[in-house]
Amino acid sequence: MKNTLFSSIFLLIITQTFGQTISDYPFEVEKSGNGNRTIVLIPGFACSGEVWAETKSVYGKDFTCYTLTMAGFADAEPSLNPNFENWKTGITNFIKEKNIEKPILIGHSMGGGLAMAIAADYPELIEKIVVVDALPCLQALMNPNFKQQENIDCSATVNQIKHLTEEQFLQMQKMSMPQLIQNTEMLETVVNWSLQSDRQTFAKMYCDFSNTDLREKIAAVKCPTLVLLESNFKNFKSAIEEQYKNLESANLQYANKGLHFIMYDDKEWYFEQLSNFLAND
């Protein structure tokens, strides 16, 4: 009895101290729908899984949906060592350990990068992927010769963002978010997800994802891939197609209007593209 009580107290202390037990995944997950096929929905940088609320509503009848909110984003409990590779591994382990057979991955922004990385490293695991406004290498859009750094030091970025006052951080997000979303009804919601995010995670993942280059890796992706891109990217078609040239299965489509949050800014087009892709075997 004493040993059991001690173990329970020790586990409670560990959980409270580190925010998660060893067996946890680096995200919160919500299961909905009851279809025979499965969709795993991965949100983008500093976003809640609620960014997929309408997507779940539309496809919940035909699919079982697992909606993630990554650790430290949008009020989700932060994890010990947030980085792109750990999150990729965490999602992969979740799919394997929960015996989710051939899921479809739908990822927005950073979530799209994670979907590509998982499909490349584990091509037998995934049925299809949908990449919503993400590039294999964001930095290469401005600098095609960009090289990913090994063991990048993100401490300067972390310190800079962590030391912003609440008001300074708020103003930074209010200035940057209108460049990413035109839907004024959802703008405040998206800003609030950033404000609710853990600053350490926010800064570390901003730095880490900015250093991520998947241009060579995506050659290993074998499953059908739909890439939905914001309307402004039509002006950079050649550069974007160059980034995706190694992903032979990629079907690149450009939205008619709107910005980065395509699911809000060009909703009808987004669902039309998604429905056609999910319906095709």
Concise structural overview:
The protein is α/β, with parallel strands linked by helices and 281 residues long. The chain has helices at 2-18, 53-59, 84-97, 110-121, 155-162, 166-176, 184-195, 199-210, 237-243, 262-265, 267-279, and strands spanning 27-32, 37-42, 63-70, 104-108, 128-132, 225-229, 250-254. β6, α9 and β7 form a beta-alpha-beta unit.
Describe what this molecule looks like in 3D.
This protein is of the alpha/beta class and 281 residues long. The chain has a single domain (2-279), classed as Alpha/Beta hydrolase fold, catalytic domain (Rossmann fold, 3-Layer(aba) Sandwich), CATH 3.40.50. The protein contains eleven helices and seven strands. It has helices at residues 2-18, 53-59, 84-97, 110-121, 155-162, 166-176, 184-195, 199-210, 237-243, 262-265, 267-279, and strands at residues 27-32, 37-42, 63-70, 104-108, 128-132, 225-229, 250-254. A seven-stranded mixed β-sheet has the order 1-3-2-4-5-6-7, with helices on both faces. Helix 4 (110-121) links the parallel strand 4 and strand 5. Helix 3 packs across helix 4 and helix 5 runs antiparallel to helix 8. The longest helix has 17 residues, at 2-18. The termini are far apart. Residues 1-23 have low confidence and may be disordered.
Strand order of the largest sheet: 1-3-2-4-5-6-7
Named CATH topology? Rossmann fold
Q: How much strand? A: 5-15%
Shape: globular
The CATH architecture can be given as 3-Layer(aba) Sandwich
- The structure class reads alpha/beta
Instruction: Work out the radius of gyration.
Output: 19 Å
Order of helices and strands: HEEHEHEHEHHHHEHEHH
What count of structural domains? Answer: 1
**Main β-sheet: number of strands, strand sense, barrel status?**
7 strands, mixed
* Average pLDDT metric: 92
Poorly predicted ranges: 1-23
CATH superfamily: Alpha/Beta hydrolase fold, catalytic domain
Instruction: Please work out how many helical segments DSSP would assign.
Output: 11
Number of strands: 7
End-to-end separation: 56 Å
The first-level CATH class is given as Alpha Beta
